[in-house]
Structures are given as C-alpha cells and as structure tokens.
Amino acid sequence: DAGITQSPRHKVTETGTPVTLRCHQTENHRYMYWYRQDPGHGLRLIHYSYGVKDTDKGEVSDGYSVSRSKTEDFLLTLESATSSQTSVYFCAISPEVVMTDTQYFGPGTRLTVL
Amino acid sequence: GNSVTQMEGPVTLSEEAFLTINCTYTATGYPSLFWYVQYPGEGLQLLLKATKADDKGSNKGFEATYRKETTSFHLEKGSVQVSDSAVYFCARRNSGTYKYIFGTGTRLKVLA
C-alpha cells in the first residue's frame, strides 16, 4: 500500500471556526489531491498540487485553501467552516503519469461542522 | 465538458450472479479510464484501468473494455461474491492533465 496518512481521522467543529486537515505521504510522489465525498456527488476535486508551492483549483474550491511547503505534506484549510462542508475528505497522490497512471488514496477524514 | 456518468445504485445481486455497472464518458479528447473500488470505511483503490480505445482492463475477475464508439467503459464480472460488496467509481483523466474526474459511485450489495 502507498504510504499515505491523513490527520485527524475524525473531527467535529463548530460553524465559523478554522480547520486544517493534513495529508502526509512517504512515497515522494509529485502530485497530491484533496477530494470531498458526498452522497449523490461521488468524489469532487477541491484542490490539487503538482509540486512544492504549486497548486491549482478543482471544481469545488470555494471556501478552501491549500498549502504545500514540502513534497510530503499537503494541507487543506477551511478558513471559516460551514455546515455545507460537512463531508468525508480524501487525499490522493500520484507519481508522474509516464510512470503509472494511478492515484493512491488515503483513509479519509470525516469532518462534521455543527 | 469532461464528465463521467455511471448507473445509480444500489445494485443488489445474489452470490454468483453476473454483474454489469454501466459507465459512459463525454467524448472530449482521449481520456484514460479507470474503475476504483471503495470498501466500507476505507479509501478508494484502483481496480482496473485502460488508456486507449479497445484496451481491456482486468483484475480480480472484473473486466472493462474502453469503447470509443459508444464512449463507454462498463464494469463486468461473471460471478460476484459477497466480498465484492462495495462502492464502485468510474473515473477519467484527460491526456495532458493531472486532474481525475469521478462518477457518483454505484453501491453493490451481494447477498449470500
């Protein structure tokens, strides 16, 4: 299994508070992704990174920011959490496409915003 | 645009039944196509993939063929087991990008 960890695994917070989720990899893969999973919507891309300090928006980026200061860590921040951000968040990594066209997923973080 | 549409679930089958989960994609460029599986309480893991037209991906008894003429990548298995109960996601990646687009997922429940 690819070495991907997410922390925390579960979090309950209140509306208006900031929240940071962490994704850590030990594979030295270039690409990292944050998705949210919601019933009826499948997986939707929030942000992704194609290198240290290089990030780009996905389809549901409003209300989220990301940072990648090291190859191994990709942080997702909710500046002011809202109830609509209650979801399960997955991090994924992938190497250069010429190596293998596969994403590897972390175990997920279940976030509840009250 | 770039999208993936898969059949809604849940799909409930008896053990040893034949499985088909439909997936179609919009014909933009020449995407790579994937099936991922998510077991309860876990993240997604790659089940199989195909990178060009007429390719067949296969793994663990599952198969899917990249059909350019029908823009489809249907997942099939000849004889399902209880352990196949999971959520299955179809996905695409356009050449030249590193973004993956996922379908909404299809829940499969196999009864003993």
Q: Count of helical segments of chain A?
A: 0
pLDDT averaged over residues of chain A? 93
Query: Helix amount of chain B, in percent?
Result: under 10%
| Helical content band of chain A | under 10%
β-sheet strand percentage of chain B = over 45%
Largest interface: A-B, 25 and 20 residues
Q: Please work out how many helical segments of chain B DSSP would assign.
A: 0
Q: What fraction of the residues of chain A are assigned to beta strands by DSSP?
A: over 45%
Sequence of secondary-structure elements of chain B: EEEEEEEEEEEE
Give the low-pLDDT segments of chain A.
none
Structure description:
The complex is a heterodimer of chains A (114) and B (112). Chain A is mostly beta strands and 114 residues long. Chain A is built from no helices and eleven strands. In chain A, strand 7 and strand 8 (73-78) form a beta hairpin. Chain B has 112 residues and is mainly β. In chain B, a hairpin with a 6-residue loop joins strand 10 (86-93) and strand 11 (100-102). In chain B, the strands form three sheets. In chain B, strands 2, 5, 6, 10, 11 and 12 form a six-stranded mixed β-sheet that branches. A four-stranded antiparallel β-sheet of chain B has the order 3-9-8-7, with no helix packed on it. Chain B is built from no helices and twelve strands. The A-B interface holds A 4, 31, 33, 35, 40-45, 48, 50, 58, 90, 92, 94, 97, 101-108 and B 32, 34, 36, 42-46, 49, 51, 89, 93, 98-105.
